């Protein structure tokens, strides 16, 4: 590769220098904004192999490309070098001898779903592949792992030239690398055989070749011992870098508890707003409702779920579907994230179909639930006896009103805002559960079963944290808003199914039908190159990256092609293995 500027290498490996962001990658992933490397990352002392890799995504916020179906990405001069402890650089991968392999993988790597791509080796030795289509990326790597002597390497450097053929394409790309135990080691749970070395910032592709770089070495180490072909002079081959746009906190969902039913005077309704990140509340925000009432803020500051409450009054307007029409921030109230960015509240507007407001009390004209002696007249809620023409006395009919007897038990109404949730390790989401207490003072509890050992539930009433396979909560705790937190430490992709029921134990106990919530936990991460896990520059462990399945799972065989440890059928031909194999994600 031609001589390039060391400044470009440092810029592309400094957090905050991405030129765009990848579509389909959750913002909670530590590599969403680019560079995710711990400077000085070294392989475990007994490791002897490494592989570089790259990926391409459509750019966030870019207009649709009318020529997307025919757009291509060209990859040239892909090389991987290791830095030895004696101060020398050694090339261990070269596209000219290790042809590019890869495919289209689902954008967030969930389930490792993938489809084959079309790849052509051009006359100059470069690889031309399909540009990523909607919902997918391009993920690629050389066909065989590079090798070195154990204990002799303290860093890695990956470079490639890339471009697109389509001037209307808005694509971003980056490079990275993984350490491997040896050239043929299979993937194992926990990344013990393939800890990540890191990745670079996102570079926006153009129709002219640009140099892309990744390194695990610090800027100081690079300056002291530049990689092959690097100079300290300025270069015009890489466009100027820009700071990625800040993420704006925003309402992503609104839930009501109860979610359905007819609410009358005195009934309490809890409304929960879910945000895409934790927010801090100042003052007393309120929600305007279409029945003429206002819901006041109760709790949730510092989390991603804010709880509001309202009680039906006789002055409310009857409506067949309660709705939130506005969020009010009067008298200095505010909702902001930790950086002080004001939240976008437009997503709070929502109509709750089936949740009726009826402020007029209903009286049963038939009298009370009778418990008196049949035939004693109207008292006790009993219809007077009927005289039979034959001279015998018939029996009366028991009334069903609210007075004069015992009210039959009523099943509490359980509401679930979202039956499918995803929570990254070290993060939390609103559980979105609510329950309606049939009668004031009733002893209503909610039971959540199936909670895995790596998840906990916290209420916003007194901030208690619950764990265990079966959790019992009071109605007040549930309606204060529940937060689900993941502490998953593995690298699988587990899915748990929670079962939720509500029981009114006042008198004869009655229980609602069970509702389920499916919770997916992306794989956990941990720092430290020797632990077999991906290092995170931000200290969070929330990435759901499947490099361990893709480039990381690659086990190069003697033919110099991919031999994925998790593929049902290995193939020696790098250009066709995706067509012949089924890639599955290992479960923790």
Detail the topology: elements first, then pairings:
Layout: E1 4-5, H1 6-12, E2 49-58, E3 72-84, E4 89-94, E5 100-106, E6 114-115, E7 119-121, E8 127-130, E9 136-142, E10 146-147, E11 153-164, E12 171-180, E13 196-199, E14 203-204, E15 210-215, H2 219-224, E16 230-231, E17 251-257, E18 261-263, E19 268-275, E20 280-282, E21 286-289, E22 294-299, E23 305-311, E24 319-328, E25 334-336, E26 350-357, E27 413-416, E28 420-422, E29 428-430, E30 433-436, E31 444-449, E32 455-459, E33 465-466, E34 470-474, H3 475-479, E35 482-486, E36 495-504, E37 510-511, E38 515-520, H4 577-580
- Rg estimate, integer Å: 31 Å
Q: Got a strand count?
A: 38
Instruction: Specify the oligomeric state.
Output: single chain
Low-confidence stretches: 233-245, 361-407, 524-588
Strand content: 35-45%
Q: How much helix, percentage-wise, in residues?
A: under 10%
Q: Could you give the distance between the termini?
A: 41 Å
Write down the overall geometry. Answer: elongated
Structural class: mainly beta
Described by strand count, sense and barrel closure, the largest sheet is: 8 strands, antiparallel
Mean pLDDT: 78
Number of helices: 4
């Amino acid at each position: 590769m031609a001589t390039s500027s060391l400044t470009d290498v440092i810029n592309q490996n400094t957090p905050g220098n991405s030129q765009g962001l990848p579509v389909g990658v959750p913002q909670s992933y530590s590599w969403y904004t680019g560079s995710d490397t711990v400077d000085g990352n070294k392989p475990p002392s007994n490791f002897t192999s490494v592989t570089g890799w790259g990926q391409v995504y459509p750019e966030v916020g870019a207009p649709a490309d009318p020529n997307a179906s025919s757009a291509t990405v060209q990859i040239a001069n892909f090389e991987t070098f290791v830095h030895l402890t004696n101060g020398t650089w050694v090339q261990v991968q070269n596209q000219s001898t290790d042809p590019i392999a890869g495919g289209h993988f689902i954008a967030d790597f969930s389930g490792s779903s993938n489809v084959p791509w079309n790849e052509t080796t051009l006359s100059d030795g470069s690889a031309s592949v399909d540009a990523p289509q909607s919902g997918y990326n391009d993920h690629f790597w050389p066909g065989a792992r590079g090798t070195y002597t154990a204990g002799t390497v303290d860093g890695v450097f990956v470079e490639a030239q890339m471009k697109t053929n389509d001037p209307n394409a808005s694509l971003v790309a980056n490079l990275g690398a993984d350490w491997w135990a040896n050239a043929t080691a299979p993937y194992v749970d926990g990344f013990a055989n393939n800890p990540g070395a890191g990745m670079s910032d996102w570079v926006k592709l153009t129709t002219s070749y640009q140099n892309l770089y990744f390194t695990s070495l610090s800027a100081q180490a690079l300056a002291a011992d530049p990689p092959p072909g690097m100079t300290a002079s300025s270069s015009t081959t890489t466009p100027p870098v820009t700071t990625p746009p800040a993420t704006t906190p925003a309402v992503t969902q609104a839930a009501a508890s109860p979610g359905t039913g007819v609410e009358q005077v005195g009934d309490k309704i809890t409304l929960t707003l879910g945000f895409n990140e934790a927010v801090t509340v100042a003052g007393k925000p309120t929600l305007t409702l279409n029945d003429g009432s206002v819901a006041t803020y109760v709790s949730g500051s510092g989390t991603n779920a804010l709880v509001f409450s309202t009680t039906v009054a006789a002055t409310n307007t009857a409506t067949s579907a309660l709705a939130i029409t506005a969020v009010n921030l009067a008298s200095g109230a505010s909702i902001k994230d930790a950086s002080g960015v004001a939240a976008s509240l437009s997503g709070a507007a929502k109509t709750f179909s089936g949740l009726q407001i009826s402020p007029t009390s209903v009286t049963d004209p038939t009298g009370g639930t009778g418990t008196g002696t049949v035939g004693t007249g109207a008292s006790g809620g009993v219809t007077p006896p009927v005289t039979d023409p034959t001279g015998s006395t018939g029996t009366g009919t028991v009334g069903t009103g609210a007075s004069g007897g015992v009210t039959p038990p009523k099943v509490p109404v359980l509401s679930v805002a979202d039956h499918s949730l995803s929570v990254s390790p070290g993060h939390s989401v609103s559980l979105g559960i609510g329950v309606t207490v049939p009668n004031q003072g009733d002893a209503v509890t909610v039971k959540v079963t199936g909670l895995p050992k790596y998840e906990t539930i916290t209420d916003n009433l007194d901030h208690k944290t619950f764990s265990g396979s079966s959790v019992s909560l009071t109605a007040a705790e549930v309606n204060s808003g529940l937060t689900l937190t993941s502490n998953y430490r593995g690298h699988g992709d587990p899915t748990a199914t929670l079962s939720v029921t509500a029981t009114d134990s006042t008198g004869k106990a009655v229980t609602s039908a069970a509702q389920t919530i499916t919770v997916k936990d992306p794989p956990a991460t941990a720092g430290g190159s020797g632990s077999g896990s991906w290092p995170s520059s931000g200290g969070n462990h929330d990435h759901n990256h499947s490099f361990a399945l893709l480039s990381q799972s690659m086990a190069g065989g003697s033919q110099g092609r991919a031999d994925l440890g998790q593929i049902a059928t290995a193939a020696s031909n790098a250009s066709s293995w995706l067509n012949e194999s089924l890639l599955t994600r290992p479960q923790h």
